[in-house]
Structure formats: structure tokens, C-alpha cells
Design a protein that fits this description.
Largest interface: A-B, 44 and 50 residues
Number of strands of chain B: 0
Shape of chain B: elongated
Largest sheet of chain B: none
Order of helices and strands of chain B: HHH
Strand order of the largest sheet of chain A: 1-3-2
Distance between the termini of chain A: 32 Å
Radius of gyration of chain B: 18 Å
Structural class of chain A: mainly alpha
Strand content of chain A: 5-15%
Oligomer: heterodimer
Helix content of chain B: over 70%
Number of domains of chain B: 1
């Protein structure tokens, strides 16, 4: 049984306070939500802290906003275009980010940026869905990877050798059954 | 004068946001498979919510409310990314076919 960290309890309580405004009667639901949140967070191994680098953050925020706008415009264009131009595919991607918050953050950001989302994730290997099958996709992932590394102040391990631990993630197509 | 300009900007931002929600819904209906539909939901709705949040933040009476709105947008982003990943993962496990990918589906 892991111990619950007081710091995270305070973080969750602060989030609730901002959301619900500091109203006393909101704390009946708030106490349940905060406790559930912190217990789940601890149970899922979220105790390791992450240090955000200010310089990385200053670079990441405009990048993220810019990409969000592009992603929204891109998908809106494809959805409303009479011919509905799509060329979807899955690609494998191996991340060089170290295990922990940086990697999880990266995987989540993939799903918010233009034309990509992470469909499977095992250790260092991802299966990413692309809305259009082009060489841009993998390059965008590498750019995002570098930005996330800067945000967390970690190094991207460039060595990409080795085979995926999960064979389902190695190929392009191929559903996993069972 | 400044106030009416601010209201104009808010109106434009909220309308633009609503447009992206509409486009996301069009994608949800028109895209060919579950994987493409997830793109429509995550991207268009996040930008839509972002624009609406920005528009409303301009009308907020104080900074507490603005931080509240920002936090709501960030939490919605985190939820959207997580739910998108989980839906895609379970669809792959269930063998839901994907357009453009050579897949065999068990009879």
C-alpha cells in the first residue's frame, strides 16, 4: 500500500476550490471527489513528481495553441468538405522520452494535435492513428517529442533500436484478436 | 465604447467556437470509422471549447473566474485525450475494422 502524499492532496483540494469556488456547502461533494482523486492517483503510481521548466513552458504554450488551432481547422475542413478528404492509417512510433510524467504527457498531447492520436501505448512503443497518411505525421511526432522534453527538462533517447515488447505494436495494420 | 467592442469580440469568439463544435459533429456523422471520428471529436471540440472559454473569459468579472474557466478547458482537454485513447485502444482490442488499413476481421 503506497502512502498518500500530502502535497497531492493539497493540489487536488486546490483544483476543487478553484472549480467550485470556496463555498462551504460544495465541500460535501468536494471531499468525496478529492479523496477519490488522490487515492486513484496514488494507486496508479502517480506519486513521482515532475518538474516543469519555465523556459520549456514558455516555448510549449504557443506551440500547443498554434497546433490546436491547426488541428481544429484541419479536421473541420475535412468534415465539411463535400469529398471528405481522408487517407487514414496507423503508424508505429517509438518514443525516446524517459518513463514517467513526460512520456504520459506526450502520449496525451498526440491526441490533441493535428491529425494524430495515440491508439495503443506499451512501454516505449506507440501505435498512432493518422488522419492522412503522409511523411509529415512522424515528423510532427518528433517535434512534439522535443517540445515535451524541453518542458520537463529531460533528454530524448535517440537510439531507436530493439523490437517492441508488444508484437501488436510493431506492424502497420494487423488487428490484435482475443 | 470599449465595452461594446469587448462584447463584439466575445460574440465573434463564441460563434467561432460554436462553428467548430458543429464541424466536429459533422465529422462524427460523416467520417467512415470510429478512429477517424475520434479525430473529429478531440480536435474540433477542443478548439471550439477553447474559443468559447476565451470569449467568456473576456466577460468574466474577476481573475478567479478567468482561472476557473482556464482550468475547466485544461481539464476538458485532459479528459478528451484520455477518453480518445481508451476508446481507440478498446476498439483495436475488439477488432473494430479501420478504413485504409489492411485488416482481417474474424467472422
Amino acid at each position: 500500500m503506497r502512502r498518500i502524499s500530502l502535497a497531492w492532496l493539497l493540489v487536488f483540494a486546490l483544483v476543487w476550490t478553484v472549480l467550485a469556488a470556496p463555498r462551504f456547502d460544495a465541500w460535501v461533494a468536494g471531499a468525496i471527489a478529492v479523496l477519490t482523486g488522490v487515492i486513484l492517483h496514488t494507486g496508479l503510481g502517480g506519486r513521482q513528481g515532475a518538474r516543469i521548466h519555465l523556459r520549456g513552458l514558455v516555448r510549449f504554450v504557443p506551440f500547443f495553441l498554434n497546433q490546436s488551432v491547426r488541428g481544429g481547422l484541419d479536421v473541420a475542413f475535412r468534415a465539411l468538405h463535400p469529398a471528405r478528404p481522408l487517407d487514414p492509417t496507423f503508424i508505429p512510433f517509438r518514443t525516446g522520452l524517459p518513463e514517467g510524467p513526460a512520456r504520459v504527457f506526450f502520449v496525451n498531447c498526440i491526441s490533441l494535435l493535428p491529425g494524430t492520436f495515440s491508439a495503443q501505448f506499451h512501454d516505449r512503443d506507440l501505435r498512432v492513428h493518422l488522419l492522412t497518411d503522409d511523411a509529415e505525421g512522424a515528423r510532427r511526432l518528433e517535434t512534439l517529442e522535443r517540445k515535451v522534453a524541453g518542458l520537463f527538462g529531460v533528454q530524448v533517447d535517440e537510439s531507436k533500436e530493439g523490437t517492441p515488447a508488444d508484437p501488436a505494436l510493431s506492424g502497420n495494420g494487423g488487428q490484435r484478436h482475443g | 465604447m470599449t465595452e461594446s467592442l469587448l462584447e463584439l469580440v466575445t460574440g465573434a469568439l463564441v460563434l467561432a467556437g460554436a462553428f467548430f463544435f458543429l464541424a466536429g459533429t459533422a465529422g462524427l456523422l460523416r467520417f467512415p470509422d470510429v478512429y477517424c471520428r475520434l479525430h473529429a471529436l478531440t480536435k474540433a471540440d477542443n478548439l471550439g471549447l477553447g474559443l468559447i472559454s476565451l470569449g467568456l473569459a473576456l466577460q468574466a468579472p474577476d481573475w478567479t473566474t478567468r482561472i476557473q474557466i482556464l482550468l475547466i478547458w485544461l481539464l476538458a482537454l485532459a479528459a478528451a485525450a484520455t477518453v480518445c485513447h481508451l476508446l481507440a485502444r478498446s476498439s483495436l482490442r475488439e477488432g473494430v475494422p479501420a478504413v485504409g488499413v489492411d485488416t482481417e476481421v474474424d467472422p
